[in-house]
Amino acid sequence: MNAVQSGGNEGFFAEVPEPVPYAGSGSPDGLAYRVYDPERLVGGERMEDHLRIAVCYWHSFAWAGSDVFGAGTFDRPWLAADLDPMEAAHAKQDAAFEFFEKLGTPFFTFHDADMAPAGRDFAESRSNLERMVERAAAKMAQTGVRLLWGTANLFSHPRYAAGAATNPDPEVFAYAAAQVCAALDATHRLGGENYVLWGGREGYETLLNTRMRQEKDQLARFLELVVEHKRDIGFTGPLLIEPKPQEPTKHEYDYDTATVHGFLQRYGLQDEFKVNIEGNHATLAGHSFHHEVAYAVEHGLLGSIDANRGDPQNGWDTDQFPTSVEELSLVLFEILRTGGLGSGGFNFDTKLRRQSMDRIDLFHGHVGGVDTLARALLAAQALIDDGALERARADRYAGWDSELGRSIHGGQASLSELARLASDEAIDPPPSSGRQEHLENEVNRVLWFER
Length: 451
Ligand code: XUL
Ligand code: CO
Known about the structure:
Blueprint lengths: L40 E2 L2 E2 H5 L1 E4 H5 L23 H19 L3 E5 H4 L6 H22 L2 E6 L18 H20 L4 E4 L5 E2 L7 H22 L5 E3 L9 E2 L4 H10 L6 E6 H6 L4 H10 L3 E5 L18 H13 L8 E3 L10 H28 L1 H9 L6 H7 L5 H10 L11 H14 L2
Parallel strand pairs: 3-4, 3-12, 4-5, 5-6, 6-8, 8-10, 10-11, 11-12
Antiparallel strand pairs: 1-2, 7-9
Helix pairs in contact: 3-5, 5-6, 6-7, 10-11, 11-12
D-xylulose binds next to loops.
């Protein structure tokens, strides 16, 4: 077994000796935040507390830049194939915490499998995880970095090829339950603020071999078990389901937020779960990021956000760093107008491109993403302060405050009474403009000129 090649005492990111500073728009180049100033007050709250940014362990530290056509390209010495697995996990953790600290953002997120190597059996895997979690706890205490959420990887191992909770084999269900039990314990131990379940392979490849109804019943039972365990150990953070329509399966049951909502209601789980919305999953489902967040906030379902984007020229989950202030301004507008993220945050579930192979590229990706979010936050607050959108909505629905509107909602008006009203009073409402272009101009006015 070889030793990990590192920068020695200087660490893995010696090129970035100090935490990335806030330098404002005046600084011409170099690694610095142009907009993200953690202390800046926006609507009375610190920018850092609004955005609650997290770095994910998996794409940033546990992935070497491979794709389906080729091997990893990234310079990640802690991922070298000839290392002792536990020594490699230590080095990966050292690299991750050095990065979190130098990036200066408050949270991280992880899967069990990102942090600790698999053992020969479940008991050994759990013990590896527990050892790595104790080491992580010490690093968190040293650096002040906190855990936004933990999760279990129930999709990479071949045993999960036909799903985890929705597998036709109950022993696979049991193995998945054991893994979630350990991952939820680990999240609790690290003071995690949420726990996420993304059903990567909870879906089907072909209906020819699938009992859809049975698989959904299994999934619901699995979720009930997670709720029970959360109560047993005293974990108080929200449980979050992460919707995604497909990939890796042809069809995922948690297709989008509305589908998850219906599923939770059908099984009486609506008070136990919220959603973790990912930008690129929204677009894969044929929605906008804005749509998924608007649906969630309007139904009290928003838990947290995986901030990323797809590429409009291809149809898969490219997990790119967000760069569109316009898109994120509308997302943040929905979040701010309904009271903020609560215990959620913005997690960079983001991958560098395969050609971005230097370790410094991890900084460039994250710094750009963080600044995009910060800029969008300022724009969203300006949209709230400006009030044009809220006023337009209020005007558009004003009729529902009238006697007629109230009697419809209040249940006093029957179908036949409404028919009588329409004929006796010759109701003939004129169509009115939705003013879409005007509202788009109002948004741009704020985006372009807000300081
Ligand atoms: C996959 C994905 C996951 C979840 C956590 O598309 O987004 O990384 O965020 O399992
Ligand atoms: Co995600």
